[in-house]
Sequence to fold (669 residues):
Amino acid sequence: MAQVDSSGGIGIAVDVDDVVKRYGTLTALHGVSFDIRDGEFFTLLGPSGCGKTTLLRCIAGFEEVSGGAIRLHGEDIARLPPHRRQVNTVFQQYALFPHMDVLANVMFGLLRRGWTRRDATARAREVLALVRLADFAERRPAQLSGGQQQRVALARALAPGPQVLLLDEPLSALDLKLRQAVRVELKQIQRETDIAFVFVTHDQEEALTMSDRIAVMSDGRVQQIGTPREVYEAPVNRFVAGFIGETNLLDVAIRSVDGSRAEVLLPGGRPFACAAAAPVAAGPGHLSVRPERIELVAAGEGDLTATVRDHVYLGTDIQLHARLADDEAVVVRIQNAAGSAIPERGAEIGLKLEAGAARLLTD
Amino acid sequence: MAGVAPPGTGTGSGIYRGNGPRLMLPVWAFIGIFLVLPVLLMAVYSFLTKEFRGGVIWDPTLAAYDKFFLDRGLFGDEPPVIEWTYIGIFWRSIWQAGLATLFCLVIGFPTAWFIATRDVRTRSAWLFLVTIPYWVNLLIRTVSMKFLIRDTGPLNEFLLWTGVVDGPLGLVNTNLAVQIGLFYSYLPFMVLPIYAAVERYDFALSEAAADLYAGAWTTLRLVILPVVRPGIVAGCILVFVPSLGAFLAPDLLGGAKTFMIGSLIEEQFKGAAGNWPFGAAASMILLSIVLGVLLLYARSQAKGAR
Fold:
């Protein structure tokens, strides 16, 4: 059940408040802050070394924070040992107890919390049914496939009914096909249990398909927090634009600025009006345009003129690699629909940028 | 998902498979010559008649076992009662060896844990330190230990000098001295297998236990100890078995009061006072006890694994 706070709105499950983590002289987290709502699927996304796993381990209690607070439904847990925090973790390599069968693994947390053996058995079987492993209760972890082990790990962490479930790249050990199936399943289980999930991944596709909100991290800082659509369509900086999905970053000259709108000169000299992600001043800038938001038009028309260098056949789409007059690379994705004309290598083409989809970025 | 094969049932194939039996020949020969043959020889000797200046007469008899278990009086003509002397020595030896094993475990486990949790680069240095005494002969080490703990030795001198004690400890010729000797002799046999097990231990399991509301002691009891148990069992066997048959430490540090099986057997084969069939019989009984304990353990393991 989503908990309702005194003001009547949806409650905050986890409040990460200015968390700093230092290892000696190295700073892994530079004052990270955000809220995770009840029942939310929240993803920490970033490249390896960005601090996402460190942050997750701080919430779980495996790492001590160097500063800041972590509140679980209002109570600061940042200095509690892990076994006193009502959060449970699904580990990257699952960390199932090898000497116990599946049922005993799932019962472990319940028994530590003082459940009777009888109640714990019933609850464990219920959760195993939820992850569709009811028939495997008597197996040892070593007798299960990777996907089954992953579900045992999930059941074990869900059984005690944590206030927040932490998942540390739980899908990375699975092969691609299985990973896609588990994504759907995991999201379904999250909806059914209505527990806040904090999901760590470096896979942007995973983040986009599963999350309610994403916090994009790099270098120990949160770069942007938003829905998948917001971070994909309105990235706040070059890092987010480049990390999530593919994008073209065109070098432009900013001519005039009017609030959050700006007029820029594109390569080739045509003017173009676009939204700016952050306050900008006249000078050089970068225009981010997604490959699928560029329309192919006749040479001489549109906003840019380019020469086709190569195409890549992707099945549903065709990717065109082209170059502008100043040798800047541009990637365009066109749908592989019946009758769509694919320009030859070396052909001159015109490119029309979708006005609402281009964003001016400064850094 | 059906058909997940239990480990160890793989159907290997390939060019090396057919050579298996032939390649095993040296191993079987080794086991035959150095293990089976000596034990058989000992079994046969235990049923022979003793020759007075050592050796045996090929005349089958149960005399050796009779002497071990039954008391027929000084001249062998009284009705038999149970002979407690040798059973007592055995019992004391098992007790001493068990205690030494326990001490080695209590000290050895934290030591192994400490080494296995060090930085990879410094681990081998710590292991080397543990094994250094093994470059010295056991006899010399045991004599040195006696020198260290005797009333006029450095330990006593030091304690007297600091004023911790006001008289000599009188350690030599006590059970405690034997314990110190056994502990010192066999500690590495406890440390090394436990180290090997702890080194392979996945510390994410401890994190998982803590994450599931287990405190430090519960984690140790329910997760760490069961997972590293094979190493602990191996260490206990490696300490218990040689401690049971040890004769240097009891002889040199314990004196006559702490006579153990090892010394009893050693005496039967050394010098003119010896009785080879009796020594062989005592060895057979010792072997039976050790094998019995190991068998019981193996049984309990098989049951636990289902």
Remarks:
- The longest strand of chain A covers residues 12-23.
